Amino acid sequence: MTRSPPPARRRYRAVLAVGVVVAGFATAALLRPGDPAASAELAAIGRGTVEDTVTALGKIQPRAYVDVGAQVSGQLMRLHVKVGQMVREGDLLAEIDPALQQAKVEAGRAERARLTALLDELRARADFAQAQLARQTALRRVEAGRGESYDQARMEARTAAAQVDATLAQIRQTDSTLQADEAQLGYTRIYAPMSGTLIAVDARQGQTINSTYEAPVLMRIADLSAMTVWTQVSEADITRLTDGMPLYFTTLGHPGRRWTARLQQILPAPPKPVTSGSTNGAASSGGGTGASTVVLYTALFEVANERGELRPEMTAQVFFVAAEAKDALTVPVAALTATDEASGRHSVAMIGEGGAVVTREVRIGVRDRFNAQILQGLAEGERIVVGWRTDDGRPPRIGFRL
């Protein structure tokens, strides 16, 4: 009678048999070649537009504007305009109480009248003194007059002529003062220096204006038919910009709208940083002097605004187009492996005949952060490898080359 093996030995043999079967399957899987395309993340070569751009933020401002101020002090008696109103050059905007300036003008005119009358009197005295001098001169020739009388007549003639000249100088001085006072009187009526839209009014009717030390700004008039975009470009990108290069920008209020223009000017130095006593708002957009502060340069360009869609102080996302390729063969940047950056040569992995993975050298042109233009080495429709799936079936983490 044959004895059956003990239970422990039976379990050992079962485990051994299962291990042999699993090892056989694993060996067969290692020896049998798999399909590379099954674990590859593929992309087909297609056509598109590739842009090499420099991105920056900008502020939209009117191309032409003027701050209207007051040149005289006094109470703002009337304000004839309001914000948003269209005005033409020469329109009356505001009136300041002219009482003080009018009084100065009247005093100046009265002083001039007094001096004119005094001049007539002095000229009469000068004519009389000149006649006296002529008589004394005639008597002296015939030795019939006294020398003292001649000297007295000559002195009085010269004195009278000098008084006439002094009065004429006073009249000229009075005329100059009167002219200034009349100009000050004219400044009590404020007119529009240009045509445009009133985009800000900082004064109120009845307000007292003090222009003793500086001219206070009452309002701003701007021509909104054309706008200037003040763009801040970092020092790392400013060397890539050139005058006349194409660009486009978008705004938050018009996400689906794109405006195009050309770069017109790059200011040679960054704006000055704000100091403790500075009140100039434009300086706040400049670079600082600290080691950790980014230096920003200002690039300017203009854009038409006939429909009034662009408004002052809007933020613009600007894209300066350094290079562009339209309807070009494109490849994802993640699929490229650099072999010679200077000449634009890279290598890509692709699916060849029979499903085998092969490496091919390509030459690229314009590139952005995600795609590159193919100049040589690939054809439309060919499949390339952009990454490999992990063992658990999840797509790999692909690091895009920036």
Automatic annotation (TrEMBL):
It is found in: Cell envelope. GO terms for biological process: xenobiotic detoxification by transmembrane export across the plasma membrane. Keywords: Coiled coil, Membrane, Transmembrane, Transmembrane helix, Transport. Residues 66-217 form the Multidrug resistance protein MdtA-like barrel-sandwich hybrid domain. It comes from the Bacteria. The chain crosses the membrane at residues 12-31. Belongs to the membrane fusion protein (MFP) (TC 8.A.1) family. It holds the Pfam family RND-MFP_C. Residues 105-139 form a coiled coil. Residues 268-288 are annotated as: Disordered. This is Efflux transporter periplasmic adaptor subunit. Residues 327-387 form the Multidrug resistance protein MdtA-like C-terminal permuted SH3 domain. NCBIfam families: RND_mfp. GO terms for molecular function: efflux transmembrane transporter activity. GO terms for cellular component: cell envelope; efflux pump complex; extrinsic component of membrane; macrolide transmembrane transporter complex. It comes from Azospirillum palustre.
